[in-house]
Write a structure and sequence with these properties.
By secondary structure, the chain is of the alpha/beta class. It has 18 helices and 15 strands. The structure holds pyridoxal-5'-phosphate. The site of pyridoxal-5'-phosphate has 20 residues, from helix 5, helix 12 and helix 16.
Amino acid sequence: MATKKILLSEKDIPLAWYNIVADMENKPLPPLHPATKKPLNPSDLEQIFPKAIIEQEMSAERWIEIPDEVRELYKIWRPTPLVRASGLEKALDTPAHIYFKNEGISPVGSHKLNSAIPQVFYNKQQGITHLTTETGAGQWGTALAFACNLFGITLEVFMVKVSYNQKPYRRVMMQTWNADVIASPSNTTDAGKSILNRDPNNSGSLGIAISEAIEKAVKTPNTKYSLGSVLNHVALHQTVIGLEAEKQLEIAGEFPDIVIGCFGGGSNFSGIGFPFLRHNLVNGKKIRIIAAEPESCPKLTRGKFEYDFGDTVGMTPLLPMYTLGHDFQPADIHAGGLRYHGAGTIVSQLRKDNLIEVEDIPQLETFEAGRLFARTEGTIPAPESAHAIASAIREAKKAKEEGIAKTILFNLSGHGLIDMSAYEQFLGGEMKNYQLTDDEINKTVKSLENLIP
Ligand SMILES: *Cc1c(COP(=O)(O)O)cnc(C)c1O
């Protein structure tokens, strides 16, 4: 009888995170100071991040030890199972072997806790007592709320307004874990006020919420800011996903041909992808590593590689990234965690060097994929994760046409039990696609032309 799921024991939780920068021939370009536009001095970041995080952000060390305290807390839900999607394979009648890493079993329902715990740990270590952050769909906010609660740090979360209204349950989760939740744009910051003055009905974006959270952190004593994606240290923490999956596939006697992650700012994609990409960079393997993003927010497939701000107002360092421009306002799609204008610096360099593949997927196709997955494997996936499922299904269909038993691994970044209103719209036939014209994309990308002298 074939094995359905491969489980590791707690002692198999990785001892170190993998930093892919060490193995990149072309290193990522440096971040620039937003005012001087000169390479950023690490100390410039000390206003918003603790020193240990800044060190990781800039590090080129290949392996970075996971503190014992963090591994201890990872035990709450790690190692996560690797599951053979045999039901999905059967429904697709494909010769492909499809596996998924189930990050949806974490207490908060997504992979985000993998980085929330170490981030709060390093802040606590430095004596910080209060954190601020932003959240889109609410996934990062819930993860950080739980982590802050574990370490006794208070938390203020700026939640994108459209999600605050569409997804009240995540707000209640955050409040249950003792966080303060504020709909963004809000009138508690200058950044929020100026946007509301211009556009009182603004439904918010991650970029705006980041501006608000940073402003609050800078203006409040003993307070730092925490980001759930995009930055190098977040990608680093998420590599526990791929490192575990690597061991699990080995136990299954498999080596992947294709590894897929959905793409918001890049953290879960990096987490599942980098430990496998390492085999390409170091051992000459040719695993295809695919980032699956929404058609309505296609920074990797249709954006431009430029220095851009991480937020809307322009408070963050300038990062070299594939971006749609910091003014880009994505459609109100249900995969709220993928509504971000830019891609992380490391992923952007890898994309530029053609070391990863990218694809964009229409909203309806993702929900069809998510529903098929739910009907065959049981778990109802997060709309974000359904992008990875849709991409895996495309590849499994190709494998069938070619008659090749490819091994496909994708990351199930989260479950969708708090996204039932999205499934309700889908089942009711009310959902639509949002394809962007070139003009729509050029409009916001054009704003980048004069950012750097
Ligand atoms: C936040 C989130 C994403 C997107 O963020 P990345 O940093 O790109 O991983 C994807 N899936 C789920 C379930 C999320 O919560």
